[in-house]
């Protein structure tokens, strides 16, 4: 059974940093794109960043470019999101996602709350 378990969320002041982790288990993820999404209260879930397990290619939404870094540790089956220079508008529940490159079932973690105070 596939499991994605996020950790690392919390409360931080504006300008601070947090590192989120997503531990993946239950299958081989070499042909998956791993992503971080976030959902703020009253807003739709939005894509933040993605990375491929195999090639390490990355994508970032414009609002986080230069501040967030997505990475993966293949040996630990873990994906990270390093978040620097945090802003109050980054406040949201952050979700880890695993999506097959060629389509098929996508998996989600339970989410971790990030709150940035001004």
Can you tell me about this structure?
- This protein is an all-beta fold.
- The protein has strands spanning 3-7, 10-13, 18-25, 32-39, 46-52, 58-60, 68-73, 78-83, 92-100, 107-108, 112-117.
- Strands 2, 4, 5, 6, 9, 10 and 11 form a seven-stranded mixed beta sheet that branches. A four-stranded antiparallel beta sheet has the order 1-3-8-7, with no helix packed on it.
- Strand 7 (68-73) and strand 8 form a beta hairpin.
List keywords for this structure.
globular; four-stranded antiparallel sheet; 0% helix; mainly beta; single chain
Summed up, what is this model?
By secondary structure, the chain is mainly beta. About 0% of the residues lie in helices and about 55% in strands.
What characterizes the major β-sheet?
7 strands, mixed
Alpha-carbon distance between the termini? 40 Å
Rg value: 14 Å
State the total count of DSSP E strands.
11
Quaternary state reads: single chain
Helicity range? under 10%
H-E string: EEEEEEEEEEE
Shape: globular
If helices are DSSP runs of H or I spanning 4 or more residues, what is the number of helices? 0
Give the overall pLDDT as a whole number. Answer: 95
**Low-pLDDT residue intervals, each spanning 5 or more residues:** none
Strand residues, percent = over 45%
The SS-based structural class is mainly beta
């Amino acid at each position: 059974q596939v499991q994605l378990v996020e950790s690392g969320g919390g409360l931080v002041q504006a300008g601070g940093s947090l590192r989120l982790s997503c531990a993946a288990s239950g299958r081989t993820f070499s042909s998956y794109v791993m992503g971080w999404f976030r959902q703020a209260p009253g807003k739709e879930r939005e894509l933040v960043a993605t990375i491929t397990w195999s090639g390490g290619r990355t994508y970032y939404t414009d609002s986080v470019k230069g501040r967030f870094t997505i990475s993966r540790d293949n040996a630990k089956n873990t994906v990270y999101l390093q978040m620097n220079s945090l802003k109050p508008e980054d406040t949201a529940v952050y979700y880890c996602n695993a999506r097959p490159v060629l389509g098929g079932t996508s998996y989600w973690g339970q989410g971790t709350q990030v709150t940035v105070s001004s």
